[in-house]
Structure formats: structure tokens, C-alpha cells
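[step 3/7] fold_predict: job queued, chain A
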Amino acid sequence: MTRQDNQQRLVLVTGPSGAGRSTALHTLEDLGYEAIDNLPLSLIPRLLDGPPHGASLALGVDPRNRDFSAGALADLVTALQANPNIQAEVLYLDCRSDILLRRFSETRRRHPLAPAESPEAGVAREQDLLLPIRALANILIDTSDMTQHDLKAELSRLFSETDGQRLAISVHSFSYKRGIPRSADMVFDCRFLQNPYWQPELRGLNGQSPEVAAYVMSDPRFEEFFEKVRSLTELLLPAYVSEGKSHLSIAFGCTGGQHRSVTLAEKLSQALAESGWRVSKRHREIERQAQGLGVFKTGITG
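[step 4/7] structure written:
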């Protein structure tokens, strides 16, 4: 979605408590947005009356807001996105329940929706409440396996206003043992390719190494599979741009998330970058292994 000179850019930042909303607002503020947290929903249309503000706006919205309801927020989003004078996007920061509970335990904070109950009750209540809003999100980021630095970097790639190309692409590798990334728009299963894990000299390496990549790419089925994935992606990208999508997440999965999926993510990222697209990549299982199998303090708040 290309913003016109007379349009006000607006990002509504939401998601469950502890998923990173505060970090996101601080990051957007650093990128030049005017950031406001917990503005009552009824005041948002009044804030947007009149000519566009000089800066883009980032508004934090969550169940702590006065007069909040999922229905009221959904109606507000629909109205804003129908307004030709506003370029409105919904950024939804998601997170697994077990990680949210760990973050509340580490900070010893009470959950805002269950101040007199257990954090488990608050997390479940809030996720149910926000489910309809999650479905409206233009951009969905799962912060479960992200550090604060990771989240800031991803938001900078997505929302920096110095880059003229609005569509940002992220390519992920993952292990099916730990589940599909919840933020993925397109998912490709590459478990049918020959597995370097069964080669003793390759087992301790990953798909970023030339030896593993060469082994995976030597599978007779690799080249046709990769070319079809690349052709499909390059066919769809202009259509996503026309529809106003600002972020596309593509994920490759294999058994352990270390070899085949990494090789394919690396190769597709390189091909898309060479075609002029703005691309970032994440290797979920390699990152978790580097950070102690996922048991770490993220520093993500809000």
C-alpha cells in the first residue's frame, strides 16, 4: 500500500499483554512515529479528524483501554481502512501462552485482566478476547522465540519510512516438531528431500554451510521444487503489493529445522533479494540452539 501525500499513516499496535506491545511502540517512536498508548477507542476518530498530522501515528490498543471491546475495535478498524484519507494497518504481536506465563513469572507482574487471579486465567481470558482482532491483522509477528533486539530489528525492517518499497518479505526455517510459525503466510514442507542428518559428516552442520547445501541440492527433486516455489512467490508478490499487504512471511519446514529447511530459506532469500525485493530471514531452530534451547529472558515487555 503506497501512501498518498494527503493520507495519514496509522499503525494500531495490539496483542496479548507480555507479547511486546510496549517494545513495539518505543521502536516505532524511535523510527519517527508519534506513539500513544492506551488511548480510549472513542477518542481515536477525533484524533484523526482534520488534515494529516506531520508524523505517522502508532497507537497502542489493548483490553486495558477505557471502553475497549473486540467488537468496537473491529468496527473502528473497518471504518479506518475504508477512509481514503487514512492508511491504517493493524500490527498484532502474538506469543505462545507458555512464554507469556514465563514472562509474567520473571517480572512478577500481575496480569491486567486477572489482578486477583492466576496469570494463567488472565492469559487465557485475554487471548480469547483478542481472537477476532488477530484475524483482522495486516501484520502478525509471533514474538515467542524473539529477543527484544530481534523484535526491534524486525519492526525497523517493516516500518522504516526511508525505504520506498512497502512490501517486506521474511523467510523462515523451522522444525515441524515444534510447530509451524504462527505468523507464516505461506508454508512449504521439504521433508521429502534427502536428509543430511543421516550423513555423519554433515549432522553437526546446518543448511548455511556449503557442504549441507550441496547435499540437499543434489536431490534430483530439489531443482524442480525450488523453481516452482520461486515462480509461485514471484507471481504472488506483485498481487500482494496491489492489495496493500505490507509484510509477507514464507516458511520452510523440515524434521529438525537445521538442514533442508535452512538451505531452502537461504536460497529463496537470495533469489528474491537479487530480484530487488526487501528480504529478511530467520532460522528459528538455529537461533534457539544458539540461545540455549529457547530458555532465555527476552527483555520484551508490554
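[step 5/7] annotate
The first strand starts at residue 8 and ends at 14.
The radius of gyration is 20 Å.
exit 0
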